[in-house]
Amino acid sequence: MTAEGVCDEAWDGAAIHAATALLPSGWANDVRVSIGPDGRVADVATGVAAQPGDHRAAALLPAPSNLHSHTFQRAMAGLSEARGPSERDSFWTWRAIMYRFLDVLTPDEIEAIAAFAFLEMQEAGFSAVAEFHYLHHQPGGTPYADLGELSARMAAAAVQTGIGLTLLPVHYAQGGVDGRPLAGGQLRFGNGLDRFLALHARAREVLRDLPADTGLGTAPHSLRAVGAVDLAALAQAAEGPFHMHIAEQEKEIEETLAVFGARPMEWLLDNHDVDQRWCLIHCTHMTAPETRALAATGAVAGLCPVTEANLGDGIFNGADYLEAGGRFGIGSDSNIRIAVAEELRQLEYSQRLRDRARVVLAGLGQSAGRNLYERALAGGARALGRDSGAIAPGLFADLVAIDPARDGLPGLSGDRLLDGFVFAGSNRSVTDLWSAGRHAVRAGRHVARDAIADRYAAAVGAILGRI
Ligand code: ZN
After folding, report:
1. pLDDT (tens digit, 9 = 90+) per residue, 215-259?
2. Mean pLDDT lowest among 3-17, 143-157, 241-255, 316-330
3. The domain 65-384 belongs to what CATH superfamily?
4. Centroid of ligand 1 to alpha carbon of 328 (angstroms)
5. 6-62+392-453 CATH fold
6. Angle between helices 415-424 and 340-355 (to 10 degrees)
7. Is residue 245 annotated as a catalytic residue, yes or no?
8. Rounded distance, CA 230 to CA 253, Å?
9. Residue 387 annotated among the catalytic residues of the structure
């Protein structure tokens, strides 16, 4: 591996032999997957023996994409869990801590944190990430000499780790639904529409030399931060994935009702042609008609169950949404904890606690682990606009090898293997990870871990000395 990172690592041409693998047709044994020099699956054979030089896997799965992340928040883990002195602790008191935190970060630190978060995503079994990137300017809001400075830092972090990056430059223009001006930490996010479009064009240039699986989308932050006129302009002009936070907090519902005369999801579905290009993050507070209407659009609900639990957002109506055929994927969002299995577990457990029932998010006789995992695969691929989500010739080789025996779960096979991983496993089960054929995690450890973890520890040390 070169100093520049995993993306420059030569394709090793090796195939993978798995004792068992989850294919589009279901589970198969003795599966051999070949990867082409373009990072796509070249061939899948079942019932065959391993050949000399094959990478060996206990169980091979398609690796999901992480559809929502703000990498800089990874370095806040542990800094926001003390209860505030006077008011009810809430999303809004957390946000105040987050704004103070981000206001001290330098570009080098932002890159170091992003690289470490991307590394952890791969060690957790994510092959790709949609980075919802809203930290654009210097503290106080003055742009860097290069408008794309911090977009370039995200790209550099992706190159260092080899993760598949879909960058989502975020438009953030106002401090609330009522159009109030930006203040404090928000100044680092802010642009008028013209400058945002210039920043977006610069981000496209920054990504030019990254691997072919790199993507670019557009993200109006939310109805809090982007007015109706700008949102309409972006929805019309933007190509590729289109992501937006919506209906995360009850206060946001109240403010949107006051200004627009409608709830956020209701207003959005009435005023925009929401379709499969859209990924709507959180969707926590929806009425029953909104839930059914969103499911019918083909859009992806971007669920971030661990973060939503940490922030006390509320419980997504998963049972009715899935019943209506709704699509979803999972995101690590605040990155307080990065783990594929824990996101899916938290999603299912939130439904069980609300309904006082056991398996909720599965059809009759169906495995919850399998159902949740496969739906998250499909939703994540769609949300990133990425040719992935299954082990099949022509798709990117986004693959994760797991061995639940490493989590004390020996002897499981078929759907029970996924149920064991999702409900009783952890990142320890992840042995290998390929992002579009780049073999970034081997024997449970990212190949660039030492250097990236050292830079991260130095950055966190410096930041904690300043806040
Ligand atoms: Zn978010």
Report:
1. 999 999 999 999 999 999 999 998 999 999 999 989 999 999 999
2. 3-17
3. Metal-dependent hydrolases (3.20.20.140)
4. 15
5. Urease, subunit C; domain 1 (2.30.40)
6. 80
7. no
8. 20
9. no
